[in-house]
Each structure stands twice: as C-alpha cells, then as structure tokens.
C-alpha cells in the first residue's frame, strides 16, 4: 500500500469524511528537478535557477532562489516561449475548467489545460478558488486577440503538462481576493492572512520594508551604530500609559518602554556617539482610534551635535530614502517657530497645504471687553472668499458644535452678504464701530465667510485652528477645494520647555524632562518657566506629526534644576543624574514615527493599513482574539489576583 | 550681568555649593565655525567638513558630519600637520598639567598645553579624568623620540589654542576606564554607561551592528521582506515561560511572544512569500545564567521551499555576512543526523572541534544484564589515550558527581595501567570475559583513560556526552589539549517529531506543533509517534545551538492529526487551522539566535558582553533596578492585586 493511498484512507477515516485530496503531501517529497536542467542548459551554480537577465536589468532570479519554482507568476514573457517552467501560486480564476489564472505576490499567469487532459479538468470541477497549485508546463504565445497589455505576462500563457493541487481551500472564504469587492475592515483584520493577498496590502508592506532598509543604509553609511535596547525596563515614577509586566518577584513589575530615551542617553555617555534603532515602543492609551499599543519608531541620537545638525541629518536622510514613486521632496524643509504656528494656524502641526491663516484682530475688540486677569485676551478670525462660502446647515452646525467645547469664548460665524446687513447684525454684539472696523481693517469682501472668536487667547486660537481644518475638509469633500498635492514637510522649532497641565494645574514638560532649555531663556527657569523655550523640534508632514526630538541636558546640575521645577523627585532618576555626572558629552536626537509616516506616504485610510498585524481600535488582536484570560498557574507564578476595579486594593 | 555670571551665581546658590563650572552651557551656544573654513579651504558642501581621503581609503568624513568636531580623536596624522582642528572627547590621561590624552570612540590624541597658557593649566589642576573637553588647536609633528607607533595618531600631537571643559565629572567614578583594571561584572553592569567606553565593548556593539546590517543586506538582495510582527499577542494555552501583560479589560492579558512563529506562517498564507525580521522575543525562564528575558533572533520564513533550500540559504547568508576578521567558514556546512549525534556525541549539539567520540559496546555487555522492559539497554564508553590520562582527584570527583545524577546507571572510570590489573579490578563488576573483550574489541592501550556506562541507553549517552565535554574542558584548562581553532558550523537534521516529557510523561513536540513530519514516517503518526522524524534542523556552532527551524505543516487535516497526537485542543489554535485551510502554500523557515552567535564570534566570557544593556542572572536591570513596585493607580487600572504566592487564588 503506497503512502498516498494509506494516507487517503487514514485521513478520511480519521476525519470521518468520504473524500479528501490525496495529494496533500506531494510537496513534502523531494522533487525530481532534472527537468529544470533541460529547461535551461546554462545553469552553472547549483542554486542559480536561471542566469542574469540578458537585457541588463536587475536580475529577478534571486526571487526564485531557495524555492521549487523556476519563475514567479509575474515574470514570464515572450522571451520564455518554448521553455519548460515550474510556477506556483493561488488559483485566482477559472473558466470552463480550461483557462486558469495563477497568482502569486508578483503577478498573474494564464494557464491552458489541454482538452485531452480529462483528469485535470475533472479535478478543477471541484477545486475552490484560492487553492494552492503547482504547475509545470511550456510557455507559448497567446493568440494576438488574447494579448492583455495591462498584464506583465499578458503576451504568453502556459500550456499545462502537470498540475498538482498542493493545498486545497477547505471551507468557503469570508471574502474573495477581488479588489472590487473590498470587505469591511473588521473582517479584513480578522482574516488578515487573506487581506494581505490584496495587491495594495502587498505594496504597503513591501514599500515599508524598502523604506526602512534605505533609512538603515543611510545611517550605517554615516557611521551610526544600530543598538538594540531593552523593552523590559523600570516603571517610570508617575509615568502614565506604561504597560506593566509582572515578574516572579512578588509585587515587582517591569514596564514596557515608551521609547528608548534613557538608554540612548546612556549610550552617549558610553561613547556610542552615533546611535540608531528601529525600535518597538509601547503605550497604553486605552481605546483611541488610529493609535496602536505597540508601534515602531526610528530612534536616533548623536553626541557633540546641535539643533541645526540634527535637522540637516534628517533632511539628508529623507532625501536619501524617499521613494521615487512619491512626489519629490525639497533638500531643505520649511521651518516655523512654535509661536508662529500657534498664532497663524492655531496648532503646533499646521497643515501648510493651504493658506487661509488665522488673523489677529485683538486691537479692534480689546476695548470692548472686560479683560480677565487669569488669561491673556485675544480676538482672532479666519475668513474664506466668496467662492468658498457655503450655505450649508450641516456645515454651520458642525462649526457651532466645535465652538461648544470652548464655552467661555464668544464665537461668531457669518457670511458677509453686504456691509450694511453685517454691521446691523453684528453691531448689537460687537458695537457698530467695532463691526465696521473689522470689515475695514481686514478688507473683507461681500460674500466672504467669516469665523470670529474672542476671549482666552489660547482657546481662541485652538478653536479657530480646528475650524480652519474642519472647514477645508468640508470644502474638499464637496469637491470645491483641493489642498496642494505632494509631501509638505515642516519643522516646528522653539517649543516651550514647560506647559501647564490642564488636569493637575502643575507644570509639566512639553517634550520630556531631559530636554535642554534654550541658553537665552535659562534665566527664566525659576522666575517665569512658561517663558523658557526648549531646544526641541517636531517634524510635520502634511499637517501630521511624524517626528520629534531635542537637544538633551548634559549637565547634571541643570538637570536637577529642571527636575525641581517639574517637582519630580530626583531620586527616581538618580541613575540618569549619575550618568550625566560621569562624563557625558552634549547630545541630542530625534524619533520618527514610522507607522504614521508610511500611512501618509502610502495615502492609506488608516495607520492599520501599513502594519502587518495591527490591533483594532480597542487594542485587541483581531486574528487571535488577544488579550484573553490566563491560567491559575500563571496567576500564582506572578503573584497576582484579578480584582474588580471598584474594589479597594 | 552676563548669562554665565548669572548662572554661576544662580547654580551655586541653588545647590548651596561655592564653586561650579560656569562653562557648562558653552556647548549650547552656536559655535562660530568660520575658523573651520580657514582650516580647510576645499569645503564644497555645507555639511562636508573635510573631503574624501586622498589615499583612496574609505572616507572617514561622514563620522564628523552633523557634529561640531572636524576630526575624531583617532584620525589625525602627518598629513594634517599645520591644520587648525576641533576635537572632542573624554580626558583619558594628564601629566604635569601639560600633556593630555583625549579619547573618543575612535582613538586617542595627545594634546600639549603651552607653558604660557596658565589659565588652562590652572583649570586642569582640579579636572577629574573622564571629563568631557572640546579642544581647538594646531596639529604638529611629535618629536621623533616621542612617536608612538601603536597609536593611529602616534606621529602627531595637537598644540592647544582653546580648551573648554564641556562637562566635568562630578563624583569619583566607581572604576577607571583602564583595560588593565577591569572591574567586576556586577559593577560594570550597574554602570554600563562607563563600561561601554572600554574598547572591547565598543567593538562588540559595533561588530554586532555591522553583522546585523550585512544579514539584512543579503536578505533584501534576495527579495526577502522585512516585516515587523506584534509582540503583544495571545497567551498560548498551556504555553509556559510566557510573560503576561495585564490590560484595561478585567482579567484579560496579552502575552509577550516567544517567537513570531504564528505570524510568519500567516504571512506565508498572505503571499508575503519571503519574510525576515530581526525580532525581539521574550521568555521567562526565571533565574538561569546566560539567559536573557528578552533576546533577539533573525527570523526567516519562505514559501514553496524545502529543507535543502533553507540550509543552502543560511549557508549563503553566513558566507555573505561573516566578518573578515574572523576565521573563514566553508561554503557548505557539515551535516549530521540527530541519531548519529546522540549515538556518537551524547547530545544534539555536538562539539566537533575534537574527536574522542562515544563508542558502543552494548553487544559485549548485553548478556550480562537483566534487560529492563521500560527502556532500551545500552553500554557505551569513551576513552582518551595515554597523553590525556590525568590522575587528578578533583577531576575524578567531578566525573563521579556528573554520574550521580544518573543514579540508575552503572558507571566506571579507570586508567588502564595494565591489561592484567584492569581485568582483575573490572572482572568482579563485569565478569572477567567481558572485561577482557572490552579491551580486545576496542584496542585500548595501556595508559588510556576509560569511562564506561551501561543501563538505560538514552541516559548512558547523555552522561557520556557530558563527560566528553567536561573532560576536555579540564584538559584544555590544564593546557594539555587544544580544541581545533576557528568556527565549526554543523547542521543537525532528522530530529524526532515528538519526545516524551520527563515531567508529564506525555508526548510533546521536539520542535513545535507546527513542524511537518518526514513523509516517509507519516504512517507511524498514530501507531508509533516517537519513531516519526520531523523536517526539522538545528544549526550548531562550536558545540552551541545558534539556530533552528523546520518545514511547517501546510495541510489543515495533517495539522489536526498532529495536534490530536499532542492532545492539544485544536480550538485553541483554530485561527491557524483556518489559515491553513484558506490556501496556504507549503513553507518553512528558521530562526538564528543572534546574541549567542555574537557571543561565540566575539569570543566573550558571557552572552551579556554582546548586549548593550543586559539583565543580570536574576533577570534584573542593574542600571535602573527594574523590576520594581508599581502604583496603586496602576494596580487599579489593570484590575490586579498582588498576592502571596502561597495563598489561594
């Protein structure tokens, strides 16, 4: 009894099913590859299935090295006609049990079954799409009227001499691999191994791999050293959003690092003076859309450097690694101070793909208001010309609803139909002279739309910044307006060193406690800390933050002063103070968020489309269902008990 | 009042200390770099400080790009004499406040302070070694009798024109950066940022970075795609040694992956048919020396492949990436079956750098023994010739103590002084004819040392395998014996599919449950599973395992059979079964343990010397003291309570 026969019986008995593909083990047997020798007589090296492309193109043969195929499904052409080939892939399509399309990651190839080959025709009758096949056959030209110019293999077809079903699809698949039938995202994520077969997902992951490699190449060429730093580290005191990991020591936990910040500074003290790492980082933000509990950043740090040097480094890096298929990017990126960004765009990551900045009219309204002492008063507006003035109730409501979260502000939105009408309506609110002056000072035309807000200056700018984006989104979705195309990088510099926490009303670091102050502002560290600018910078791409960094404090005395300003007990970072006092060079660095960068580069709907196995918006793994319960043995090993969060601990 | 003066007062007041280095902020000020232009007039690009090496060597200038220095401390030579340069680094040495040595990661440069420069001389009087300095000065030739040929910069010195103390060492350092005064490992690890300054640690990390990059290059050139897979995943049911991570969902935990196994198989089903990743993996093995809770592996998987292909791939990879400073390695690695390794070396990772194999003499002793039914009987010995026969009590005791953990075996160790004496002594144990036959059959000379064991065959081989290594370690430490030099790679193939767990007495996977069986042995899957060989392979280097992998099961029916043999509930890996049934190509892969590989390559005392920030043998981070306690807020957030492990849960 042959193994195959045995196995057929064995499996059908075992699974209680009458029929099963008896060829399932065929790929496990050593293939007789002597026919490959016939197919090409120029083989020299044992592993080199076919020789370098005669046309001098990048040879594709490496793609088939270490496999049982001679070609991918994307590479056969006229020049292969007459050749005996072996190709493998997924059954994408079949018609009349005669014409098949075999697909792999690299393309599709059309197969023809000869009319005499009844056994293969019989096999195909019950073979589901997406089954894995191995095909041997001879390449032949397609009839002229069958040539498909949109297909890389559109001039040829393969006349099948031998077809093996290597792995049959068992049950009906939850969705087809047809781009015009895109499934819902939740289903795509649950069956990610199917979703990855779509060419767009293939492309996203392949571009990701290529971009990361180019980044490494640039940095290695510039003598940066790739150092892997731990992810199991000490819980930061008071550090929020850190996952914890129980250990076999009762009551003692690692935390998963949010970034390699402390380690990279220690590398600088350790004379690894040019460091990089494509680092996995962890942040528990609960359920926030478009955030992932684990994410990847390109982490860079170097010694004896300056803000200018680091900005240059990153510009050179992008120049080197930016893919050719995307829009070209400039050698130097635009720069903007934090203060300018807030004053003109109402946020620290301005979208500069369109103008329509926020305008200051504080001088016109100041006299109208009883100025409060607990905040700086400001009056600002943003306007759009006649052609962008939309009378849409939905739009108006959406703007009003934005303003509602700033309840202490006065907010006006209006289309200026005529000067007279506007002054009449607005006069009651602003006084007639002020309403007139706003029109006069700002050269507002009839037909313009105007959003005006006044009150707490910070909040006014924040509101108008949101309105600017929301209004343009609406215009763009309505087809009335188009943002500038391309990739618009922007540096934001001169960030404040500290900010007032809205929840605790205490000072906190705008970047992190190891960021160096601007030397010109050091005198304000204790007298007026909110005035101190940091040597920190963010990189913005098309209105989204894709990176940020700073020059770090290298002097332990200054570090202690900053910790004291922040009311952080310096004992909790004593190892950092010791490190700074042990001979630590001045240093600085940056981290680029690669997931978001790729999301913008590939213009995907969400960050999840550039990640192979993303978590969903709840932080769950849709494939395996993680997180899940654990065994009592584990609970015992790690000395923990699960409790209701409302209970006392 | 200048900032510096202010700051001096401010800091001294703040810290209550009378004097502090007032120059600590000097590096934060923009440097006047116009003098750089004078130093070299050929600057063309703004970032290119000096042009390509005239000698045609690899240009070093990239090392100084994006920094404030013009040269490293390792690159100045005769050709720079007369040049005004800027170098930065650690004060390594000083004599008479006049001769200094400045060190950075790339070398040392000698500095000379002019006798007139009394202020710098004064400064140096109290400056501790390892402080960071920035020096500007002119390169000049050393007097002939002062040339140091062992130093890359030994022909020159820099006459100091300006010296700034950038960061002064504050307290006495726990150890000096002097290679002849190596500190204890616990101290080195606690102050890792000091330890990294040693040239050996610098070299280890730099070679690591280079080797990993070469591996990536090879794989990318062969069209493998670098895909990052999640580390937060589902707890494997019954999976031991997995760290768990509590989430905001009460009672639900992620686990940290032990390897990307499931993800890489899903990539194969998803048509990412050539995958690699330098992956962080996690394993909680409690306190085991030379193991790390997190470690790095080069993870590879490809579709439509075979054992032969994967072995070729790895051989080609090593050929490409192996550093030139190490011993060359062969194009093809030796191969050995698991059975052969066990029979001849008593273990599955034989050290083939010396011979002295284990010999079978079962046929001579079998008749002597009442053969037990619960195991296979075996009698084996290992011998060393006269020149390696050591009469050492300590050695003899150490061998005896090894044998004590195999209490059911009979074990004999003896030097054969003369045939007569040996037969006399052994005759009582083995019977005289058997004792004689052992000598005759095995051509043992007078003066040889012999270790003989019999009983349970598996245990006999295990014991003699340990004795083989231990004895040779002793010989080598005594200077009597030397193992073959160089790097000896070895493939172990034909592993068993299953093994009997010693603790549970149940079948378990020798590799993992997704490993494919050898087609020739499939018939034994249910009848005699221990007889089934797997398509699994390990890579051994100098007697240590540095990698392992297998061809995986691609057929869902076969996977279910294997799960049933292992008594694993297939529901727990239903997503894998679904994936295999969705059109999954045949595939296989391998993972290489990079920490151990580098440890062997760099010939370090421990695996910790090739890791930037290793945990100690207890799994603690010596720098920060992690793991540590967490806040009540965190416990509440993650719904856990710390309990005494003896309590009921």
Automatic annotation (TrEMBL), chains A, B:
GO terms (BP aspect): aspartyl-tRNA aminoacylation
InterPro entries, per the entry: Aa-tRNA-synt_II, aa-tRNA-synth_II, aa-tRNA-synth_II/BPL/LPL, Asp-tRNA-ligase_1, Asp-tRNA-ligase_1_N, Asp/Asn-tRNA-synth_IIb, GAD-like_sf, NA-bd_OB-fold
Keyword line: Aminoacyl-tRNA synthetase, ATP-binding, Ligase, Nucleotide-binding, Protein biosynthesis
GO MF entries: aspartate-tRNA ligase activity; ATP binding; nucleic acid binding
Annotated region (Disordered), positions in chain: 44-63
Example of a GO cellular component annotation carried by this entry: mitochondrion
Domain Aminoacyl-transfer RNA synthetases class-II family profile, residue spans: 205-622
Family classification: Belongs to the class-II aminoacyl-tRNA synthetase family. Type 1 subfamily.
NCBIfam families xref list: aspS_bact, PRK00476.1
UniProt xrefs under PANTHER family: ASPARTATE--TRNA LIGASE, MITOCHONDRIAL, ASPARTYL/LYSYL-TRNA SYNTHETASE
Protein name, UniProt field: Aminoacyl-transfer RNA synthetases class-II family profile domain-containing protein
Source species of the chain: Phaedon cochleariae (Mustard beetle)
Taxon lineage: Eukaryota, Metazoa, Ecdysozoa, Arthropoda, Hexapoda
């Amino acid at each position: 009894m042959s193994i195959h026969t045995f196995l057929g019986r064995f499996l059908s008995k075992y699974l209680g099913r009458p029929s099963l593909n008896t060829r399932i083990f065929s790929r496990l047997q050593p293939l007789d590859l002597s026919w490959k020798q016939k197919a090409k007589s120029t083989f020299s090296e044992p592993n080199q299935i076919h020789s370098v492309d005669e046309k001098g193109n990048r040879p594709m043969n490496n793609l088939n090295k270490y496999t049982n195929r001679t070609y991918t499904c994307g590479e056969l052409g006229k020049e292969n006609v007459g050749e005996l080939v072996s190709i493998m892939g997924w059954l994408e399509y079949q018609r009349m049990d005669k014409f098949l399309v075999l697909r792999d990651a690299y393309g599709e190839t059309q197969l023809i079954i000869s009319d005499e080959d009844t056994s293969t025709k019989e096999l195909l009758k019950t073979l589901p799409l997406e089954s894995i096949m191995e095909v041997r056959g001879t390449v032949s030209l397609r009839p002229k009227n069958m040539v498909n110019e949109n297909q890389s293999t559109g001039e040829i077809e393969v006349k099948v001499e031998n077809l093996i079903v290597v792995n049959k699809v068992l049950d009906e698949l939850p969705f087809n691999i047809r781009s015009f039938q895109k499934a819902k995202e939740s289903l795509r994520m649950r069956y990610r191994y199917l979703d990855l077969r779509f060419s767009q997902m293939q492309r996203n992951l392949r571009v990701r791999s290529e971009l990361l490699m180019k980044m490494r190449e640039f940095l290695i060429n510039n003598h940066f050293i790739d150092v892997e730093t731990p992810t199991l580290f000490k819980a930061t005191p008071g550090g929020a959003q850190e996952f914890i990991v129980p250990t076999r020591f009762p009551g003692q936990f690692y935390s998963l690092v949010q970034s390699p910040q402390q380690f990279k500074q220690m590398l600088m003290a350790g004379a690894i003076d040019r460091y990089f790492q494509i680092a996995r980082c962890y942040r528990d933000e609960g359920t926030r859309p478009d955030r992932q509990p684990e994410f990847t950043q390109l982490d860079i740090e170097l010694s004896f450097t300056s803000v200018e040097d680091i900005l240059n480094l990153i510009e050179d890096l992008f120049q080197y690694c930016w893919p050719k298929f995307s829009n070209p990017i400039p050698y130097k990126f635009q720069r903007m101070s934090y203060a300018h960004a807030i004053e003109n765009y109402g946020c620290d990551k301005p979208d500069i793909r369109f103008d329509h900045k926020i305008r200051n009219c504080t001088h016109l309204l100041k006299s109208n208001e009883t100025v409060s002492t607990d905040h700086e008063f400001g009056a600002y507006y943003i306007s759009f010309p006649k052609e962008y003035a939309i009378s849409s109730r939905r739009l108006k409501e959406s703007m009003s609803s934005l303003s509602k979260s700033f309840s202490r502000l006065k907010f006006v939105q209006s289309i200026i139909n005529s000067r007279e009408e506007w002054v009449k309506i607005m006069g009651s609110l602003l006084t007639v002279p002020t309403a007139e002056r706003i029109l006069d000072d700002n050269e507002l035309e009839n037909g313009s739309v105007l959003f005006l807000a006044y009150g707490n200056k910070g909040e006014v700018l924040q509101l108008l910044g949101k309105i600017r984006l929301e209004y343009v989104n609406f215009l763009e979705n309505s087809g009335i307006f188009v943002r500038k195309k391309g990739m618009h990088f922007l540096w934001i510099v001169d960030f404040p060193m500290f900010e007032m926490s809205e929840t605790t009303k205490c000072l906190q670091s705008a970047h992190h406690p190891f960021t160096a102050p601007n030397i010109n502002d050091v005198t304000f560290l204790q007298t007026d800390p909110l005035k101190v600018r940091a040597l920190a910078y963010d990189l913005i791409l098309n209105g989204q933050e894709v990176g940020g960094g700073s020059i770090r404090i290298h002097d332990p005395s200054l570090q202690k002063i900053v910790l004291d300003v922040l009311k952080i007990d310096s004992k909790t970072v004593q190892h950092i103070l010791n490190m700074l006092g042990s001979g630590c060079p001045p240093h600085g660095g940056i981290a680029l968020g690669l997931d978001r960068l790729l999301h913008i580069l590939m213009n995907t709907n969400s960050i999840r489309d550039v990640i192979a196995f993303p978590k969903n918006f709840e932080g769950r793994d849709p494939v395996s269902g993680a997180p899940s319960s654990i065994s009592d043995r584990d609970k015992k090993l790690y000395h923990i008990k699960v409790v209701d969060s409302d209970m006392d601990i």
